[in-house]
Amino acid sequence: MSKKLILLVEDNRDDEELTLMAFERSGLEYEIDVVRDGAETLDYLFATGKYNGQPKRRPTVVLLDLNLPKVSGLEVIRRLRADAKTRSVPIVVLTTSSEQEDMISSYELGCNSYVRKPVDFSDFLAASRQLGLYWLHLNEFPPCNPYRE
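RE: above sequence
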């Protein structure tokens, strides 16, 4: 059985490095792919653009930043939820935004969880471990999920 896959959507290289380091230290088994903007996220998940013709990677969970270049995180959620093939892919908004409107919009569009990135690294490590435990080990997919392994 292949390792479960996390798709990290993060345009900030420092935040990307911090997230990768936190998950590496979590002790969990997984693979992680990184995309750096909303358009690349959609290409990755729909196997279009530079991902056209490549085997579709099936993420167990998408960790999505909101403030992305090209296509916003909110628009990514909107498009994923509008398509039957990606409607049930778990989306966790992982952001520094403390704007209540961002949280409300994310949930209204269909995200599964909204997590503010902790500023303190040890808190970020703990949050990453909890996210990984839940989404990679405890969460169960419905039988009709086309992204199920």
